[in-house]
Amino acid sequence: MAVLPHEGSFSVMYGSLAVPVGSSHRNGYLARPDRAGRFPAVVVIADLDGTSSHEKNLARRLARGGLAALVVDIFDRRSIVGDGLGAYSGLDDGEALRVLDEAHDYLASDDIEWAHPDRLGVLGLDTTGRFALVAAAKRPWPAAVTVVETPLSGDENRRFPVADMLPHVGIPVLGLYGAADALIAGESVDEAQRRNPAGSWLLYDGAGHGFLDAGGPGYDPGAAEDAIARLVEFFLANLPGAVEERLG
User: Fold this and answer.
1) Percent of the chain at pLDDT above 90?
2) For 152, which of 80, 129, 135, 188 could close a Cys bridge (C-beta 3.0–4.6 Å)?
């Protein structure tokens, strides 16, 4: 693990990590405060491209705010040929939930001393963010869920369509979208707010698809900085507080 000092409220430790899943593993990445103690933990679901610089940067930004962020690639990359679209369409909802359950079990294991073992946050990015919402509706361990640019329709043929899950998500929800996103209609975000009235579903005026990805063509610095601040504040408010240990 490398250490990133003097940025944000916390120096952070970060590096690639193999997340155990059954008898194998999934590609992952971990960023957490470089301090002793237990911190609120968030499972970040990597998008179709896997654990890229976008997910890694986001994990580090969350860690600078006092969160332990574990990025997990829910796809078995050894079986993927070509782009990730085929893998996404072939990934059963039950299998995706199993991978997320395994990520939770890893963070809750006795070997992990730097994260709270229960009541985790889940952050879903773009297409695979639907699995974050499904986990929030179907699993007992998520305590707060956020999605960024996650399509809210088009999955009607899947086992758990997102639109049907939204009324059953009883934990705090934060959805962040660009109002100028050519791929996701603003009306679908309004409909998500109607179906999930206790959640906060926000549209950034003028921001398009990819507004949060600092390395992408759609990056919107103003929207991105506000979104990251909201993500940190949201998780800190809805997850167990940090318990730091004084050494020496």
Assistant:
1) 80
2) 188
